[in-house]
Design a protein that fits this description.
The protein is α+β, with helices and mostly antiparallel strands. It contains four helices and nine strands, in the order βαβββββββαααβ.
Length: 184
């Protein structure tokens, strides 16, 4: 099933999410549907709040980038109940976009290195360190679980410059190439 992607302005994007366990209804189907929804929108990551669910889960697939950088080959992961437990001190700026904020791309400063604990789709625990682009994508999706979107991390002047686009999203006056759900 392809879900509509929730757009900036929808309250679910600002909610704190809840942990889930192996008994979450139809978990494997939800994971499959999240990947299908993400691929349909040509994304590389998707968090549960982006499809209207306030649960602590996101999916990432960087395989599409493997042609340019072999480190991304086979990097397809499910993160359930993740907790970033350590952020590196060194920061790096890079352009980011988001399926929930279509048409907006801005430079975001994030730590280059993180340590994260999470469960995979088999509910097996992991404690891993990621750097550079992998760390950035994970942090971007993790923000969704914390009620944040990437435009919360841009400078006030850049946010002001995007105000009309963001206002259009909030008011439901937006067109997109994939199915979306607006606040209105």
């Amino acid at each position: 099933m392809i879900y509509p992607i929730v757009v900036y302005g929808c309250p679910v994007l600002r909610e704190q999410t809840q942990n889930i366990d192996a008994n979450y209804p139809n978990l494997q189907q939800l994971i499959d549907d999240m990947f299908a929804t993400m691929y349909n929108a040509e994304g590389i990551g998707l968090a549960a709040p982006q499809i209207g669910l306030s649960i602590r889960m996101f999916v990432i697939d960087l395989e599409v980038l493997a042609e340019d950088d072999p480190q991304f080959k086979g990097f397809k992961k499910v993160f359930i109940n993740p907790q970033i437990i350590e952020f590196g001190e060194e920061l790096e700026s890079c352009d980011e976009g988001c399926l929930s904020v279509p048409g907006v791309s801005e430079s975001v400063k994030r730590p280059k290195k993180i340590r994260i604990q999470y469960l995979d789709e088999k509910m097996e625990a992991h404690d891993e360190v990621y750097e550079n682009y992998k760390a950035r994508v994970i942090q971007h999706e993790y923000d969704h679980l914390e009620g944040k979107v990437f435009v919360d991390r841009i400078s006030p002047i850049r946010r002001q410059m995007n105000r009309s686009k963001l206002s259009s999203m909030v008011s439901g006056k937006i067109r997109c190439r994939y199915r979306i759900k607006t606040a209105k």
